[in-house]
Design brief:
The chain is α/β, with parallel strands linked by helices and 519 residues long. 53% of the residues lie in helices and 7% in strands.
């Protein structure tokens, strides 16, 4: 999510909080005035050095800088690990608590620091123990420890595990951060202008926090993140067993175990993607690039490593652990990518096996949505030439029909004349064969061009003026599917299809109004 999108869902209080992060002198304005101020200062918000300075001012210049820094970084990682870098406060708290617990549990493992050079752990533990005489690590002690870590090849996670062994992670006696400490850190990160609080999202959506996409690169650089763990795991999964063994052996780790064991061992050891890839030959990197749909095989070794890391960093990963065995539910998880024919993500994440599968997967995902998210029973269409889906309105038996039109990324749906002819035929055939009126025909696509409305009105008139023709973007349809029950008068009843019964573009504002009337 970009800054301009996030600030559109923020009230004056939280907009002002962002502005204060980069200037103390500003005139009082209304919401739109504050939004203009932020848009005019995007460079100040995203600059690498400015981001680092704002972070340090908030978390390093404090009474317990190391503990505060750990907490802030876990909160940032909670957001960076999510699609669009968005999460609710409860999601962030749960992630932070789980990550702290994971470090403490890892500290009891016999192999956890085996990748460190000989005597590194012993030396660093002695220095760290001395620094903890007063139960906290000061700013000066942090600077000294960072320099020592570089010499001893100890990464941030190694230090956390050593602290846990000393019963000082994240605080004394390995006490976790409390709810109030986490929420205070979240508020402090807002005051730094590093995360934005969207407290007016609309359409029944929960309030959420977000790291705008302009700011996330600077934060990743600040925290030394090349790839989030889930994306690094995807990269490693495309390596051979022999290549993985070379990587873990470089850190004196065991080479036994299945592929997923070696992948986990690599990530747990704190090996960076660039370090892992640098252990491969240029030929092996070129072979790996061929597995990345859209990457060229040629290039120097440093360039190839950078391209591969960037490729995986831009993949959209979803948590599908709770997804059933129904493949249509997996398709639904990637609804927007199917609508936009995002072959890069769909092929490389094995959502589809061939580009030509996109249209069918998009149709299956939509059927899953209307059945399992909106709670409707789909009609079986026996004729060979028909729309992609059909449902009866519950109150009168009239028909609700839809058709999917995926587009290449960057394109907008213009409602071309051949589609007008196609949809007119579907509506006429349904009326002739079933003697039923088509009350609404919905076109589902990726992005909608304004001039698409013209043929929507024309098709309405050509169909006898009693069929509404609506067009909706996939992102807006998913948002409704996920959130409509939150403000519904009866969440156990199926979704009210009257919300779609409209001629023209069903944009977010129009949907918001119709949801208030019919939901």
């Amino acid at each position: 999510m970009r800054i301009i999108e996030a600030i559109d869902m923020m009230s004056s209080t939280y907009l002002e909080r962002v502005i204060k992060s980069f200037t103390k002198e500003y005139p009082k304005k209304d919401e739109n005035g504050y939004r203009d101020e932020i848009i005019n200062n995007v460079e100040a918000l995203k600059d690498d050095l400015a981001v680092e300075n704002r972070f340090n001012e908030a978390f390093i210049q404090t009474g317990n800088p190391y503990s505060n820094k750990i907490l802030a970084q876990f909160i940032l990682k909670a957001l960076l690990a999510r699609e669009d870098n968005c999460a609710t406060e409860n999601d962030i708290i749960a992630f932070t608590e789980a990550e702290e617990k994971k470090v403490i549990e890892s500290a009891s493992g016999s192999e956890v620091l085996k990748h460190l050079p000989q005597n590194s752990e012993t030396i660093f533990t002695a220095v760290l123990d001395a620094a903890l005489d007063d139960s906290s690590i000061s700013k000066d002690e942090m600077s000294l420890l960072i320099k020592l870590r570089e010499k001893l090849q100890i990464n941030d996670r190694d230090q956390q595990i050593i602290l846990a062994k000393l019963k000082h992670f994240p605080k004394q006696e390995n006490a976790p951060h409390t709810f109030s400490e986490i929420t205070k850190s979240i508020n402090d990160l807002q005051k730094c202008g590093l995360i934005f609080y969207c407290n007016q999202p609309g359409n029944g959506q929960d309030k959420f926090l977000v790291i705008p996409e302009e700011i996330s690169p600077a934060l990743k650089k600040l925290m030394g993140i090349e790839l989030m763990e889930d994306k690094f795991a995807l990269l490693l999964a495309n390596l051979t067993m022999e290549q993985l063994k070379v990587i873990v052996k470089s850190k004196n780790l065991m080479t036994s175990g299945a592929k997923d064991v070696l992948i986990e061992r690599t990530i747990t050891a704190g090996i960076k993607p660039s370090q892992a890839l640098n252990l491969l030959s240029i030929g092996e990197l070129q072979d790996l690039a061929l597995k990345c749909k859209g990457l060229k095989k040629s290039g120097t070794k440093p360039n190839k490593i950078a391209e591969i890391i960037s490729f995986y960093d831009n993949l959209i990963t979803r948590d599908t652990t709770s997804v059933s065995e129904d493949p249509n539910e997996t398709f639904y998880q990637y609804f927007e990518q199917l609508a936009a024919r995002d072959e890069k993500n769909l092929l490389n994440l094995n959502i589809i096996s061939k580009a030509k599968d996109i249209d069918n997967a998009f149709e299956y995902a939509t059927r899953f949505m209307f059945e399992h998210k909106f709670g409707h029973t789909l009609l079986h269409q026996t004729d060979s030439d028909h729309c992609d889906g059909c449902i009866e309105f519950l109150n009168n038996g009239e028909l609700f029909m839809w058709d999917n039109k995926s587009l290449m990324q960057g394109s907008s749906y213009t409602f071309p004349d051949p589609h007008l002819t196609q949809f007119k035929r579907y509506i006429k055939d349904a009326r002739d064969r079933n003697n039923k009126k088509v009350r609404c025909f919905l076109i589902i696509t990726s992005e909608v061009a304004e001039d698409a409305e013209l043929n929507a009105y024309k098709l309405k008139m050509d169909s006898g003026a009693d069929t509404d023709i609506s067009i909706i973007a996939a992102s807006d349809l998913v948002e409704i599917a996920e959130n409509w029950k939150k403000n519904s008068k009866d969440a156990s009843a199926p979704f009210n299809l009257e919300i779609f019964n409209y001629t023209g573009i069903l944009d977010r504002e129009t949907l918001k109004k119709r949801m208030k009337i019919f939901n």
